[in-house]
Amino acid sequence: MADAPRAAAFAVLQAVSEQDAYANLVLPRRLAEAGLTGRDAALATELGYGTLRAAGTLDEVLRRCASRDLDDIEIAVLNLLRLGAYQLLRTRIPTHAAVATTVDLARATGNARAAGFVNAVLRKVSARDLDGWCDEIVGDASPLGRLALRYSHPGWIVAAFADALGADPADPAGTTELADALAADDERPETHLVGWPGRISQAELAAEAGGEPGRYSPYAVRLSSGGEPGALEAVRQHRAGVQDEGSQLCALALTELPLTGPDERWLDLCAGPGGKAALLAALAAGRGARLTAQELHPHRAELIARATEGWDVEILVGDSRTLESDERGYDRVLLDAPCTGLGALRRRPEARWRRSPADLPELITLQEELLAAALRLVRPGGLVGYATCSPHLDETRHQIERLLAGSAQVELVDARAAFAGVPDTGGSAMVQLWPHRHGTDAMFFAALRRLG
User: Does residue 250 carry a catalytic annotation?
Assistant: First the structure.
C-alpha cells in the first residue's frame, strides 16, 4: 500500500502529463477524494506542486542516473522517478524513506515491474545533494544557466527576468536579486483574499479568516497557512473572494488615478473569470458609476456573472476588438491582457514548462490589438489601465513604448501615485510588482490617457 499523500501527488503528476491538466484544479479534487487534511494535505501539496516546479532540474539529474534515455521511460515511471528525486533533493525527507515510499508507490500503482529500476535510479540520485548535482551538471555554464538549473526555470524565462530586473549576468551583485526572484517562484505562495468593499471590512475578514491584513491593498488579507479558502463563511456568502494582492492593486490603480470630466462609465475588457470585475463593480457602486464587463468566451462570461452578483454590471460577450461604444465612450477602461503568465508561475507549477518563446509573437500582437481597442473605446480625456501578469519586457514596458512612439493621441500617466506605499516598483511611470519584493504576483501596470 502506498501512503495517501504520495499517491495523491503522483495522481496530480499523471493528470498534468497525460491530460494537460492544471495542477491547481486537480489537486483539490484528489485531496477531497482521499480525505486528506492537515499535515497529509500539506505533504501532498508540497510533493505534487514542488515536483512540477522542479521538473526541469530533476530531469537533468535523472538523465545522469538512468540507464536509458528519459524519452524511452514510460511517463508513469518517469513521474515516479521525479517524485522520488524531488524528495531526495528538495525536501528533508530521509533518504531511506524517500526511496522506499517511491518503490512502494510503484508497486501500488501497477508499475511493480519497474520497482527495481526505480530503486536503482533513486539510489544513484541520493549520492549527491542538489548543490552537488548542480555543480556537476552546469560545469562552465553561464551564470544564467547556473541559475536556471539551481532554481529550475527554463533559460529563456531566467533571461526575461534578468532583463526586467536590469540584472547584469556578469555582475554577481546583479544576479543576487535575480536569484531572489527565481527562489520566490519556487516557494509555496500565500493565499490572498479580497474583502468586497461595502460587504466586509479588511479587519473583519482578517479576524474571520485568521490572516493578516495585506501590505498595500486596503481590501487584502494574506493567509500564511494552508486550508481551503472556499470554505470560509465570508467567501461562501460572497462577501470576499480569492485574489492576489497585486491584482487588487492594478484594479484599484485604475480607479484612483485622477480624471477630468465625467466618471460614470467603467469598462473591464477581457474580464473573465471576474475577480477584478467584482472589485471594480463594488468600487463603482460606491461612487455612482456603472461597470460594463466584456468577455470573449461565454463560459467565462458566466463566471463573471457569478462573481459580480448583487452589483449592477452589464456583461457583454464577444471580441473586444470589434466592440462598439456610443459617442460618449467609457471614462475608465481596464485591460488585463492575455499574456504568458510568467508573473504567476509560483501559483501554476506546471506553467513554466508549458510556455515557450514561440508563444510571444502571437500574444504581443493580440495585446497591441486589444490596446488599440481600449483606446478607441475610452473617451477623450479618459484613462486606460493596461495590466499583465508578466514581467517580460516585450509584454510590458516595450509594449507601451511601442504604442507611445506610434501615436500622438496617447500620453503616459504616472501610475506610481496610485501605488502609494508600495516600494521598489521599477523607477518609472510604469509599475512592476514582484513576488520577492512585494509578496504578490509579478503584475505590471501602466496608465494611458487618450488625448483626442
Answer: no
